[in-house]
């Protein structure tokens, strides 16, 4: 009879050094913080409910812990929950899997318990998005998305074009786009923590037009709603992408992540994504007067009973909207 594989017994200091070594393999500071937090919560649950250390994690532990994360945080279907949240099982499982895969490479484990859990119960250990872009998002479609962003009734005009343009050019996560500050921007491009990413002239024009429209009270951050009262959030950029994709005929499941990955794949293949000039946007997709941002703009459907139009937000004083 085969013996069950044993896991090494490590002191808490040794586990801490192991986690730090794993962290050193992850270049993104944002990802490191999130992965450390998600692994820590799994380790705490495992110790309290199973009496084991993190290196003794089994597939059934991953499944049991995943079941504790269901409910509002489990996006079961993209039509019901079209946007992935940071606290979904998919995101957490990716963090755990990254750590255990590192342990396997170091010879500390013989198998990744997250991969085993996904094979046993894929609904519980929720698999992440496939690492490939949407097939329909080619260079022409990305250009069309920027045009649709310019005419969006909630985040349209140079604001929407700037948001989509930065997402396509930098291929960042939405929260990195929406948290840009004035010090990040330069004639050299946009700062990426370690280097400057050059921006095409069209995107410089979008950003310049938006900065000209901004109220003086918004401070150092670039992306505020037009009233200047609050910053644009990552979830609003993700919803903007969904709305633009649906209007462009790309379906109702094209996410901001897919757009960024599609742009990255096109760049790797040497295919240029040419953004439409600002003058062209103003001619073919004049920005409407902006509506106040509701919690979810797709809930405000003019064809549904009980629809009430949101109050219009005026542009900053002295700004004249150009449509041609």
UniProtKB/TrEMBL annotation:
Tell me the leader sequence span: none
Database matches in InterPro entries: CB (IPR044068), DNA_brk_join_enz (IPR011010), Integrase_recombinase_N (IPR010998)
- Tell me the PROSITE patterns matching this sequence: CB
Region (Disordered) residue spans:
291-317
Organism superkingdom: Bacteria
Q: This chain belongs to which protein, by name?
A: Core-binding (CB) domain-containing protein
- Please list the residue ranges annotated as the Core-binding (CB) domain: 13-104
